[in-house]
């Protein structure tokens, strides 16, 4: 595909598999145990995540969709400089349901821009390169397959245009606050004065509402978390019995940290197969494995986060309930 900049696949995939194995083992050998939620998203996890986005209790997706569908023209004005060409870079584009409102509007109004979705999944980038020109005729797209900051560098190499970076869906919330701060600094480091970032963040709200979003009645979020154990069964020849683990989400309204754990329901030993041979991991009955943080912020905290990373807040957009925020930061 001419549109795509990519790292040679064989090498890439082998090292990704090794890293998955290494990270899982490190987490399971730690005390307390933890696993990294970025590994939730294999093909099965992607599909469960789509179910989450459609479930009644998971409000963040609909809130941000409302912001993008109701404020499309205002969002476009906020990121445009009259007449200037720019690159619209989306970190973790997914199927770009939300950003497609903005993309269609920009194409219709004749904006001079190239859409550059960045995703770690080669499948998603292939899909977008093929599909978007069909759903949004006239769009210029250059998909970038790789890690966010590596690909931001690539984007700067291939074009000198002003950059507008989208980081939506409250993905920033899946970093511990200190890491989120570091991430924003690093993002700022990849941008030049005049470039912009448009960040979507889930806000603090009624604790029942937050907790329910991560503890849906149908048990979709439970399956989403347990899928990481199943992924280890599939990819690392592990022998987790997922019925012996329970999903335990908590929300601390004071700190805004919503965290998911898996609890071992029995004393048990699991094994997994690595290059170095079979590894055994023991779990005590009642032991917790930390899986994911979905940090919630106040609007003031978001402004502060931008400021600490040397961004200036240009404009912020909220859904009608004030539950979610999309903020425009000027580098
Ligand atoms: C992708 N990310 C912003 C989601 C969130 O809300 O933290 C992932 C998720 N985990 C459980 N439900 C959704």
TrEMBL record:
Keywords: Methyltransferase, Transferase. The keyword Transferase applies. GO terms for molecular function: L-histidine N(alpha)-methyltransferase activity. Signal peptide: none annotated. Its EC number is 2.1.1.44. It is an enzyme of class 2 (transferase). It holds the Pfam family Methyltransf_33. The keyword Methyltransferase applies. GO terms for biological process: methylation. Residues 22-329 form the Histidine-specific methyltransferase SAM-dependent domain. This is L-histidine N(Alpha)-methyltransferase. It comes from Mucilaginibacter angelicae.
């Amino acid at each position: 595909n001419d549109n795509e900049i990519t790292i040679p696949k064989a090498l890439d995939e082998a090292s990704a598999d090794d890293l998955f194995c290494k990270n899982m083992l490190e987490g399971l050998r730690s005390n307390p145990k933890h696993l990294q939620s970025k590994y939730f998203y294999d093909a099965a996890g992607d599909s469960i995540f789509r179910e989450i986005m459609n479930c009644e209790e998971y409000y963040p997706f609909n809130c941000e969709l409302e912001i993008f569908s109701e404020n499309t023209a205002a969002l476009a004005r906020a990121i445009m400089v009259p007449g200037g060409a720019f690159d619209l870079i989306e970190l973790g584009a997914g199927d770009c349901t939300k950003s497609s409102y903005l993309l269609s509007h920009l194409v219709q109004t004749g904006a001079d821009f190239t859409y550059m979705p960045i995703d770690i999944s080669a499948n998603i980038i292939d899909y977008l390169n093929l599909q978007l020109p069909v759903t949004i005729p006239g769009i210029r797209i250059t998909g970038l397959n790789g890690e966010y900051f590596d690909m931001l560098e690539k984007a700067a190499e291939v074009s000198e245009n002003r950059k507008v970076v989208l980081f939506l869906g409250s993905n920033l919330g899946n970093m511990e606050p200190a890491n989120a701060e570091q991430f924003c600094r690093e993002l700022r480091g990849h941008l030049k004065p005049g470039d912009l970032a448009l960040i979507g963040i889930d806000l603090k709200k009624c604790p029942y509402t937050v907790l329910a979003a991560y503890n849906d009645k149908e048990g979709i979020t439970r399956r989403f978390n347990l899928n990481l154990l199943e992924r280890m069964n599939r990819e690392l020849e592990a022998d987790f019995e997922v019925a012996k683990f329970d999903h335990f989400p908590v929300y601390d309204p004071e700190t805004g940290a919503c965290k998911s754990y898996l609890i071992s329901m029995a004393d048990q030993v699991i094994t997994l197969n690595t290059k170095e041979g079979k590894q055994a991991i023991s779990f005590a009955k009642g032991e917790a494995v930390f899986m994911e943080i979905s940090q919630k912020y106040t609007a003031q905290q978001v402004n502060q986060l931008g400021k600490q990373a040397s961004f200036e807040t240009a404009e912020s957009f909220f859904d009608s309930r004030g539950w979610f925020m999309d903020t425009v930061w000027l580098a």
